[in-house]
Design goal:
With 147 residues, the protein is α/β, with parallel strands linked by helices. It has one domain: HUPs (Rossmann fold, 3-Layer(aba) Sandwich). It is built from six helices and five strands; from the N terminus they run βαβααβαβααβ. The chain has a five-stranded parallel beta sheet, sandwiched between helices. Helix 4 crosses helix 6.
Length: 147
């Protein structure tokens, strides 16, 4: 069914929701997992162009991704990590193609009305930019989310 699943993480409790689901799916399909976090600080967005050193934020993000990869590996699931910087939706879609992923699995918060209108949502951007199937799993533990 699926061979390689891309999972964008945002370093929030929504990650627990999608990682639990993807771990079961990957084990069932024998798929490997690629975890991605798109850092959006100034250094992360300008990292390549200005040949900058990693910021403290980026080091924490990389450590978080590596810890999650280790947890998946402990469960018998092959996992890789990608730390990107820039526009989250574009970076997620580019990584899915570059990494040969046949599914993007994302946790979502649900609608936040005005914030979604003003900023858009990463999930919405991804689904418009990619041809890879997208699985969206809503984190029902998020008290700020509205159905």
């Amino acid at each position: 069914m699926y061979r390689r699943i891309l999972v964008p993480l945002e370093h929030s409790r929504t990650d627990r929701c999608i990682l639990g689901h993807v771990a079961q799916l990957a084990a069932h399909c024998g798929a490997s997992v690629v975890l991605i976090h798109v850092a959006d600080g100034w250094v992360a967005r300008s990292f390549r162009e200005l040949d900058l050193r990693e910021s403290e934020e980026m080091r924490r993000d990389r450590a978080y991704l590596e810890a999650e990869c280790e947890a998946l590996a402990a469960a018998g699931i092959a996992a890789d990590a990608v730390l990107a910087g820039g526009d989250p939706a574009k970076e997620i879609c580019a990584a899915a193609e570059r990494e040969g992923c046949d599914l993007i699995a994302m946790g979502t918060h649900g609608h936040r009305f005005l914030a979604d209108v003003v900023y858009g949502s990463v999930a919405n951007g991804v689904r418009h930019l990619t041809r890879v199937p997208v699985l969206l799993l809503r984190d029902t533990s998020d008290p700020g989310a509205v159905a």
